[in-house]
Write a structure and sequence with these properties.
- This protein is mostly helical.
- It has one domain.
- The chain contains 12 helices and no strands.
- The longest helix has 28 residues.
- The chain is globular and about 60 Å long.
- It starts with 13 loop residues before the first helix and ends in a 6-residue tail after the last helix.
Length: about 290
Amino acid sequence: MNLAPATALQASPRPGRRLWSELRLVERLLEEHRAATVARFGAAALDVIDLPSVAPAGELDPAQIRASGAMLWARELEEAGLPGFVDALADGVLEGKVLLPITSAADRLMLYRRARTHRFSADERRALYQRLFGEEFESSWKRLLSALDAIARAGQNENLAAPTARAVVAARDTALLLSSRSSGIATFAARSIANQIREALAVLRHPELVQALGGGSVVTLLRIHAPTILGRPLDPETHLDRASAALRLTNWLAAAAPAIEAGSAHLPPPDALDAAELWLATGDRS
């Protein structure tokens, strides 16, 4: 398989820059969760993979919500093609199925591939996402998006008391699921997956590899070469938008957790409404 240079499509570099910024934010959120874990269980907790929740059962914990938000972000990156595209590219180059004029980039790919035994496989990652964000979560998440959408679309003179109440109820249900499901191996996995995404991005931005693939942004390379490398097309822009929206919404839920618990939550802020509209603009209005 000889990949011809990609010349027709050129994606905006903005999604790529946003991706790196969000990756740094995710890494910081996971470190904050790590600090919260040490504060509750002591330094010995750092050597334990399957820890209980930081928060007592039935309570909302901002650190746990943000950690789950990091995993939701990673799930959408998985659908956008990361790190799976780079995994498949490394396999193809090693097995001689993908022919590229590269030397130092090939060395980088092989180093990346050799580390696979220390990472979660694609099947393991997808199983984790399914466990965390199964039907119950999806149902709650869609109710939250719908409630926020109703507020965002309300007229200037409309009474927002009823839609705000619905949004607060949906926010509590969603936040509780996020808070309760990020315990155990989930946050350990989130740190591992975030690190793998960082390594995959570094490989995909190697100048020699970019040139061999015809140039362009990360988004361009994923979109153009996915049918050849993965055997299926990708829609990276859609899932990168959802990843951004997921981070913004879960950050709002974490920040609002004390008010939600106390029953004193107010109208969701504009950023939460904008994030809901960003997600829904990708076509997920079912």
